[in-house]
Amino acid sequence: QEFEQSRIIKFTPPDACRLELMRFRTHYNEQDLPFTLKAAVVVQGAYIELQAFINMSSTAQILTRVPSVKYCENVMIRFPVPTQWIKAFWTMNLQRQKSLKAKMNRRACLGALHEVESDPIIQVSVGTAKYESAYRAVVWKIDRLPDKNSSLDHPHSLSYKLELGSDQEIPSDWYPFATVQFVVHDTCASGTEVKSLGIESDLQPQKHVVQKAFYNCQVEIEKKWIRLDGEDPDKAGNCLMQ
Fold it and tell me: Model-level pTM?
């Protein structure tokens, strides 16, 4: 009733807590995103290879209040891993079991000719990547895009290769999507922003206002199945373990 009369939203936030006051739907203005992601997984017999690359968009128009600030932070991309493959992403040592982490390789590029290796390998050209059981996915984390140490139009890539064991099937109904999350500061993606803020105990509340947009989208991962002689993936589920 108070909002209907005064058009003012009043609330009392809990102490030392992060809180979401309002969420609403908004139409996307059909502008390009700051960067594009393309990913493909190739299945050839017992070998699995995923390749993904990021390209910064030269036509992206980010609605920033400060024109010089046009970069993404806290970029996190998750590539889902079927339950049957999880064992391949763990390595054993004398102390404990640990998750396979990325091997940093800034010269990694898509389409490079290489031989399939028996050991699983994750390579990234920027950031870090590892399998995280909380998401059941290979998580690629990048602090900032564009990267400080590379040019604006330089593509970045991730790749991993697996050799599945006899007890690790490839789900025939697996249609994976990569989840992309990132933050852009001084941005108003929805077109709605706070015009004024009042706090009873603070004479200058505006200094506490931080404008940033959280992006969350999904990208389909192209699935390619290279059939070997005599292989029928539709009948793979009929095999029994002995």
Answer: 0.73
Tokens representing 237 are 């589920």
SS3 206: helix
Q: Architecture of domain 33-59+69-107+117-194+208-226 in CATH?
A: Sandwich (2.60)
pLDDT confidence band for 118 (50 / 70 / 90)? very low
Element (H, E) at 99: strand 97-99
Looking at the chain, list the stretches that DSSP marks H as alpha helix, in order from N- to C-terminal side. 2-6
Q: Report the pLDDT value the prediction gives residue 95, as an integer from 0 to 100.
A: 44
C-alpha of 139 from chain center: 7
CA dist., res. 79 & res. 140, Å (int): 8
Q: Length of the chain, please?
A: 242
